[in-house]
Amino acid sequence: MTVPTLPTRSKGSICQYALRMYARVIVMALGLATLGCDESNGPSSPTASPGATTATVRIVFLGATARRSDLPASAQACVNGVGATHTHPSWRSFAGIALQPVPPDRYEISFTDVPVNTPVSFRVNDQNACDENPTGAVTRNVFANDVRLIQNTTTPGNGDEPGFAFTVAPSGAISQ
Description:
Elements: H1 11-36, E1 54-61, H2 76-82, E2 86-89, E3 97-98, E4 100-101, E5 107-115, E6 120-125, E7 142-144, E8 147-148, E9 153-157, E10 159-168, E11 174-175
Antiparallel strand pairs: 1-5, 1-7, 2-3, 2-6, 4-5, 6-10, 7-8, 9-10, 10-11
């Protein structure tokens, strides 16, 4: 009885096979590296040129987009005064600008004109905050470019109202 044996390769053919595999690995690695350098696959965060004087900042307020039914009657004057949920940014002379509701629990807006490397401030006013602040100024659940902000300043309004101060880098990085 004969035992079947596997065909063998000469040392030369094994070396050629190894070189072909090595070359394939190099080509694949270069292809992946090139793919990683493609602009369309880059980060989605805001970026700017090194000499930029402004950056894009996305403000997000996490709060119900429907009016709360449990607000006390004493908050009604505040609710009427606040109107639509809005922000007052310092770089726009604290003018009121409506936030875009994203139901059920989020508001947002993007600004492309925020001065870089300069402290700026803003506040958010929301009807549902009228039982916590008589002007509806929000003091929590506010983000700038996905960075949670802490209430750390006051802004002009009906007297001094609570707000948020931060600095944005040309890359869009937020510091507080």
